[in-house]
Amino acid sequence: MASGNGTSGNTAWNNSVRSRLYLETNKDDQDQRTLTTKKSNYGPSGGQIVLRYTAGAFIVEPGTGYNSTLDRKARASKADRKFLELLAWHADRDLTVCPNRSVRYAPKVFSVHQNADGLTKGDFASAMTRLLDLKTIKVRTTGPASKSSQIIDLANDGSA
Question: Please, what are the domains in the chain?
């Protein structure tokens, strides 16, 4: 604890574990802690998350270091959920959206929807790409060959 590196002298126990985290108290603010990855065999070492002890729990401090990665992942997850929610909302009303840039371009339509929750067209475009890659949604061609169009559907909706 005195050195701040999270080891305990010369016992060499560090080599017997695959990863090791170190929780350190901020000397200036007793409610703030820094959780640091000291060792990780399967990932990067040195990552830090700043935490604050509030009402009996440690809460991640907004806008600090490693937290920005967590924020991006949380926003991407929110965009995925909201994309699927808005796709279902449109399908319930027999409204179609498409993967191509047009008036019915799904990210554009969803970003101006009243339930977009502050997500942008870029957020929805990234979500559409992720959901297509995961095969959660699919692109389906409709209409006669002379005037066909592509629309987005849920992959498990039972249609061909």
Answer: 13-65 (no CATH), 72-154 (1.10.10)
